[in-house]
């Protein structure tokens, strides 16, 4: 699948770790893995916050494409809304 223009929303934690990251941005990517690569190219280290070494989406991160949970292999249709969320935990 070729790259599609998608709308991405980043979790507040990612924006705290990468202060110049916008809460919402538009990128071209064909899969979630390509999206993570593009985010990492723009903000080095962000990819490691989102995916682990298997590679897979980290346990404490959820990625939703059009409201459905996604994996790195998930295809991105043109105009897709993508949310990258981080878990909140504590005790």
If you had to describe this structure to a student in words, what would you say it looks like?
The chain has 91 residues and is α+β, with helices and mostly antiparallel strands. The protein has a single domain (4-86), classed as Ubiquitin-like (UB roll), CATH 3.10.20.30. 24% of the residues lie in helices and 29% in strands. Strands 2-1-5-3-4 form a five-stranded mixed β-sheet. Strand 3 (61-65) and strand 4 form a beta hairpin. The longest helix is centred in the middle third of the chain and has 11 residues, at 32-42. The protein is globular and about 30 Å long.
Q: How large a portion of the residues is in β-strands, by DSSP E?
A: 25-35%
* Class derived from helix and strand content: alpha+beta
Instruction: Please outline the major beta sheet.
Output: 5 strands, mixed
Would you identify the CATH architecture? Answer: Roll
Average of per-residue pLDDT values: 93
Distance between the termini: 43 Å
Total number of domains: 1
> Low-confidence stretches at least 5 residues in length (pLDDT < 50)?
none
The global form is: globular
CATH topology: Ubiquitin-like (UB roll)
H/E element sequence: EHEHHEEE
Strand neighbour order, sheet with most strands: 2-1-5-3-4
Count of DSSP E strands? 5
Q: Helix tally?
A: 3
